[in-house]
């Protein structure tokens, strides 16, 4: 008997949590709340999104900013890639990341959330690989620090994409 009561309590709690989560998602998708509240790097997200409440627009703005910074980082990596280290890896991965980010922008326009998440996940992997090649961006090297920021921005884009209207 007590097992049935415990099971019923767990089911009731799950249903309540599920309904609360759906209501919160609806409020966020409707633009009533800060889209960056779903991101791990909220300060960085808000500095890029700049008050945008529409999640599709916020995601697009974040992707475009990440692309701009990736292009700059690629130019920096190009000048030092012959010296070895992680710069060669980063240089080639930035091409792949830019391609995935461009596809992600197209996915937003096509209302294809599934492909959007795949392409943003792929770009995050590209930035992770670069970050690993630079020794985890723990060094004092300015380029290594920028790889960490690119990773954080890609992570924010992926978090925002979970709210994109389909």
From TrEMBL:
Ranges for domain Pectinesterase inhibitor: 27-160
SMART domains: PMEI (SM00856)
GO molecular function: enzyme inhibitor activity
Superkingdom of source: Eukaryota
InterPro entries xrefs: Invertase/methylesterase_inhib (IPR035513), Pectinesterase_inhib_dom (IPR006501)
Alphabetically ordered keywords of this record: Disulfide bond, Signal
Signal peptide: 1-23
Gene3D superfamilies, A to Z: Invertase/pectin methylesterase inhibitor family protein (1.20.140.40)
Family that this chain belongs to: Belongs to the PMEI family.
Protein name (Swiss-Prot/TrEMBL): Pectinesterase inhibitor domain-containing protein
